């Protein structure tokens, strides 16, 4: 069975509630509605161990586990190792981007996220959705 917009589960990981809500609205605008939230990398990792998402979209700068640490942990756990991971960043810090690439990130999105850019990033990692 192919993954559709209705069945795609996209986890949003961000310590800022406003950012989580804006991301949910952007996903909603492109037809994706199965959207679990995590307020930090630690919570996201626990959720991924029990009920994995199809895609993780994570902020970089968070307490407990930052986006890179979360990416590294997800890649190290065999059941989630191939989960597409998109990192959000408010900064163009090249060192962060280079480290994310080394850890196996699938895509980057600058903040604030626009629905068209979000749809393009998701399509790049999972293909066209019906």
Automatic annotation (TrEMBL):
Name of protein: Response regulator
Originating organism: Antarcticirhabdus aurantiaca
């Amino acid at each position: 069975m192919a993954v559709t917009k209705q069945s795609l589960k996209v986890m949003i990981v961000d310590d800022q509630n406003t950012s989580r809500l804006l991301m949910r609205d952007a996903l909603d605008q492109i037809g994706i509605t199965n959207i679990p939230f995590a307020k930090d990398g630690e919570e996201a990792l626990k959720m991924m161990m029990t009920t994995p998402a199809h895609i993780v979209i994570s902020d970089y700068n968070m307490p407990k586990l930052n986006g890179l640490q979360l990416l590294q942990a997800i890649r190290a756990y065999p059941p989630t190792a191939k989960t597409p991971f998109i990192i959000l960043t408010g900064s163009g810090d090249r060192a962060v981007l280079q480290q994310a690439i080394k850890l196996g990130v699938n895509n980057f999105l600058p903040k604030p996220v626009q629905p068209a850019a979000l749809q393009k990033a998701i399509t790049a990692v999972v293909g066209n959705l019906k």
